[in-house]
Design goal:
With 151 residues, this protein is mostly beta strands. The chain has one domain. 0% of the residues lie in helices and 47% in strands. It contains no helices and 14 strands. Strands 1-4-5-6 form a 4-stranded antiparallel beta sheet, with no helix packed on it. Strands 7-8-9-10 form a 4-stranded antiparallel beta sheet, with no helix packed on it.
Length: 151
């Protein structure tokens, strides 16, 4: 199944795409082909990126989510009770893995361009809530709450 996403991101939409933003650092359209496991990102300059699963031996792409400012894409591969997560920067085509992956619980973009996720939540004694330190490098996480039970 192919899931199209049309992005407006606070810019004016015209026949040629998003008007009023920079050049190639912003996505104007994101499509996730679940059958082939490929994500297509159309940049404002008209170029097209195709992203393949960075860890195909470990599982299938699960979450594909564009950042609120349309500059980055959060991708996850689920592996049992958790998984691995990456941030893809649209402007420079760089991948950044989120160290430690993720566990059960909420995960996704915050309105300010940072990421929230949980790690180690299979065992309740090791569950931690993490958030990005900054929107400029949302793959760098810090623990904001230790949800483990202290006995």
């Amino acid at each position: 199944m192919i899931k199209p996403f049309f992005l407006f991101g606070g810019c004016f939409v015209a026949l040629l795409g998003c008007v009023g933003r920079g050049d190639s650092q912003f996505a104007t359209n994101l499509t996730f082909d679940e059958v082939q496991g490929i994500v297509f990102i159309e940049r404002q300059d008209g170029n097209l990126d195709s992203l393949h699963n960075p860890a195909p031996d470990e599982g299938e792409l699960d979450l594909v989510e564009l950042s609120p400012d349309n500059r980055m894409v959060l991708l996850t591969v689920t592996t049992g009770d958790g998984g691995r997560a990456w941030v893809y920067q649209v402007g420079n085509s760089e991948w950044h893995e989120i160290e430690g992956g993720f566990g059960l619980g909420e995960m996704g973009w915050l309105n300010d361009g940072r990421i929230v996720l949980h790690q180690g939540c299979v065992l309740a004694t090791q569950c931690k809530k993490l958030e990005s330190k900054s929107a400029d490098a949302p793959w760098v996480m810090e623990v904001v709450e230790d949800l483990g039970k202290n006995e």
